[in-house]
Specification:
- The protein is of the alpha/beta class and 305 residues long.
- It contains 6 helices and 15 strands.
- The strands form 3 sheets. Strands 2, 4, 5, 7, 9, 10, 11, 12, 13, 14 and 15 form an 11-stranded mixed β-sheet that branches.
- A hairpin with a 6-residue loop joins β4 and β5.
- It is globular.
- Bound molecules: zinc ion (ZN).
């Protein structure tokens, strides 16, 4: 990376990005603070096309440390995201990655009524119905879709543990490991109650509609069925393209304090290179951009009363 494109979360942090990446000053930037009272309920429109997704475990190809997070690059083949705010367009998974903080009380990019979570998982998709490549889609206003999932400290997350176990092998910037043990991106999403095998293709709005069925007659755990918020925004890292339809699940997933500590041990310098300033001992933490103004944008929600 040339110095002209350099950015980070410290000296070249979010407040400086705009000098090198003018799009960071746009009016459609992410993340935002979700003011839950401001969200417009839009069950009818959003649930007319159920949000659906499918992620084969074979899609996860390699785990990389770009120096500012961990990221899993995927093989888009066989992956699928459609419905909800995306309507009939088919989006495929390009990669997924994570943001976290130096302590368990911060780390998410989006906040909910001003409250941060310990982390935030992002599954980044591109619109294959309209564009030929990820790069082309990343320049278009409807080119990308990101599923965001909040991380809260709790019990060990089994699927996340597969990633955590590999992280020591990508502990330094630019290190990469091929993924051999299947990691199912779908299993990183909030686990919902109910029948086995339904997890990869769940429609919170449909489930919301299912509430008319008396609770004792079905196996769904309605407590887990909280739906999502959606709005039009941007990539949260430079160049901050304003090309993202955000879908943020209201239901968080639990990861353990230990798992987060493994994330916090990733190094942002190549092996053998010393951190010049000993700042944070050269590890990746607080890799989140603070909330940007929502402005006139509409925040819609699906799946709650
Ligand atoms: Zn992200």
């Amino acid at each position: 990376m040339s110095s002209k494109d350099e950015w980070d979360y410290f000296r070249n942090g979010p407040s400086t990005w705009v000098t090198k990446f003018p799009m960071a000053a746009g009016s459609r930037q992410s993340p935002v603070n979700i003011e839950t009272k401001r969200a417009e309920s839009d069950h009818e429109a959003l649930s007319s096309k159920p949000l659906r997704w499918k992620y084969p475990s074979t899609a996860s190809r390699k785990l990389i440390n770009p120096g500012y997070c961990w990221q899993v690059d995927t093989d888009a083949e066989g992956t699928f995201l459609s419905g909800g705010p995306l309507m009939d367009d088919v989006y495929k998974l390009e990669q997924y990655h994570c943001h976290w903080g130096c302590s368990d009380s911060r780390g998410s990019e989006h906040t909910v009524d001003g409250q941060a979570f310990a982390g935030e998982l992002h599954l980044v998709h591109w619109n294959t119905s309209k564009y030929k490549t990820f790069a082309e889609a990343a320049k278009a206003s409807d080119g990308l879709a990101v599923l965001g999932v909040f991380l809260k400290v709790g019990k060990t997350h089994e699927e996340m543990d597969k990633i955590a176990r590999l992280l020591p092998y990508v502990s330094h910037k630019y290190e990469v490991v091929e993924i051999t043990e299947p990691i199912d991106p779908g299993k990183l999403l909030p686990v919902r109650g109910g029948r086995a095998g339904t997890q990869r293709c769940v429609n919170p709005c449909m489930r919301w509609a299912d509430r008319i069925i008396p609770r004792h007659e079905n196996k769904w755990d309605f407590q887990d069925d909280n739906g999502y918020w959606t709005y039009l925004g941007s990539l949260t890292t430079p160049p901050c393209n304003e090309s993202v339809t955000w879908i943020l699940f209201k239901k968080y997933i639990e990861v353990s304090h230990h798992q987060l500590n493994i994330f916090r041990n990733l190094r942002k310098f190549p092996r053998g290179e010393e951190c010049p300033c000993h700042e944070n001992h050269g590890v990746v933490m607080n890799n989140f951009r603070p909330p940007m103004p929502l402005g006139n944008r509409v925040l819609r929600e699906c799946g709650s009363f």
